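Table S2 (text version). Query chain:
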Amino acid sequence: MAEAPATFVWRDGALVERPLEPHRALVVADSFFVSPDGRARALETHHERFRTGIGELGGPSVETVDAFWGAVIGRLRAYRGSALFPRVELAGLENGGLELRLRVRVAPRRRESAVLSTHAGPDPRSVPRIKGPDLEELIALRAAAQENGADEVVLLKDGLVVDGSSSAVLWWRGETLAAPPGDLARVASVTARSIRLIASATGTRVVEERARPADLEGCEVWVVSALHGISVVDAWIDGPVVVVRPSRAATWQRRLDALARPL
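Corresponding structure-token output:
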């Protein structure tokens, strides 16, 4: 079994282990959770999101990205036995070039619940539909909120709930699952998509809803991500009072975990 963490760059059709050069900016990035037994959820969807982002922002060819992705999955199989949270990147380097990279990272502790705060300033995202360009700023935003007791920051657009700093926001009105509408620009959450597929399979009604934080008073709220899966919101700092129903989240988390497949 290989040891984590490690970093690799794509050179001449192969992943080469080496320290990463300082980068000017992240162009596109994607992360996913790999369990110790070498399983992950919705890998093809993560692959497609990464490839689509690179295509939209201009980068290596589809063939190159696909070859890189295949090598990444092969490399990660060597880490069986460790819980991982790898990140793939297309980075803009100081010299003006672009580089495909893999960061093999040990997965942080996964949580089942979360405390939220609301971002008070303007929307910090410059390219809200692609994961990467704003990632480092959003990580810094979340780190600042964590110093004040929050786990995750809710981003607003014109006062409406649109996204979390590193997660998607969902909520329940009774037995109906709700999400922000698609016209509110945000990264397409792979985990939220998986949950909506589970909802379809179980006959659960799903709606899209334009909601301000105050509109979620009395709702059960989830923040969902590739790392944590479903986190039940048990408090919202200076926000609505929410309902906590861990048993429902536990059931849906088991359904989500059942979607994991070997690398």
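Notes on Table S2: The two ends are 15 Å apart (CA to CA). The helical segments are 43-57, 62-76, 135-146, 190-202, 246-257.
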